[in-house]
Design brief:
six-stranded mixed sheet; Rossmann fold; alpha/beta
Length: 307
């Protein structure tokens, strides 16, 4: 598979302060690549380096096969960009502003702008100064998607959007991926990224902690377990459960007649299933993997030289 975007040993300093520390990643063409991290992790700085809005201190970047610094207007027309902080001219309508962007970005399929606006519930004939934060965000999404670019770079794309519009945005991302477009998006909300991304990079303090598929994150995530069994003593149930690889925090919740235990599981589920199959279960609750908890656990460690 061809690579649409890549960074190798990417660093960025503002004065003496280094905000990106040797960042490496590669994004397959036609995929959705999500970068998550808390505010200040370096997500926006990384995107701005990719787009040559700011220039890295060192390292290599390739975007759609060329260096951003050398790509010029030709490369920019192949990209749709939604910045995290969107500033719009206030004396024009949304329709006029998009017409201006169309002259810069290149041809837009007939009816495409109105179609996108209708999907997002955006009135294009209102002046931009009259738009709420959410509607300004919708306008930004329309300008990014309207010319069906090869690459979409979206910084916190659902900021200010209500849940129904967020779902419509997710559908737009899936459709773009189906057409072969590449999507590079950032968020500090894991649930947003896991709904759309094929691959997730976790960024903390200017460093990539891990790059993993959503399924890979799910396999390593934490599940919460609770079950009730009859015909076994509490201490025997605890001992059997504690022997399962990845099981921890075992607690006895009830031991009057039947036994109720709770625990957490991190890792493969098959050994747990085999252990539970040997019990006389009367109740079982195994929650979906908690990716949020797994990622927060990654955030908790202190990277070397981060401060």
């Amino acid at each position: 598979m061809a690579t649409a975007v890549s960074a190798k040993s990417l660093t960025k300093k503002f004065g003496r302060r280094e905000v990106l520390h040797g960042v490496d990643f590669a994004v397959e063409a036609g995929s959705v690549f999500g970068v998550i991290g808390p505010n200040g992790a370096g997500k926006t700085t990384t995107m701005r380096c990719l787009l040559d809005i700011i220039r890295p201190t060192s390292g290599e970047i390739r975007v759609l096969g060329v260096e951003p610094r050398a790509g010029g207007p030709g490369l920019r027309r192949r990209i749709g960009y939604l910045p995290g902080e969107l500033f719009l001219a206030g004396r024009v309508t949304g329709r006029k502003l998009l017409s201006h962007y169309e002259a810069i970005s290149g041809p837009v399929p007939p009816g495409r702008i109105d179609q996108l606006a209708e999907r997002l519930g955006l009135d294009l004939d209102r002046h931009t100064r009259q738009l709420s934060k959410g509607n300004k965000q919708k306008l930004g999404l329309v300008q990014a998607f309207m010319h069906q670019p090869e690459l979409l770079v979206l910084d916190e794309p659902t900021s200010g959007l209500d849940p129904l519009v967020q779902q419509e945005f997710h559908a737009m991302v899936r459709e773009a991926r189906h057409r072969g477009q590449t999507i590079f998006l950032s968020s500090h909300v894991l649930s947003e990224v896991q709904q759309t991304a094929d691959t997730v990079a976790i960024l903390r303090d200017g460093r990539i902690i891990t790059v993993e598929s959503v399924e890979g994150l799910r396999e390593g995530a934490i599940r919460h377990l609770r079950f009730t069994a009859s015909g076994i003593a509490a201490h025997d149930a605890v001992a059997q459960l504690a022997r399962v690889p990845g099981v921890g925090q075992v607690q006895v919740l009830e031991a009057d007649g039947s036994v109720t235990l709770s625990a957490v599981l991190e890792g493969a589920i098959q050994p747990l299933v085999r252990m539970l199959d040997s019990l006389q279960l009367t109740d079982l609750v195994l929650e979906e993997p908690d990716l949020e908890e797994a990622v927060l656990k990654m955030y908790a460690g202190e990277p070397e030289d981060a401060r």
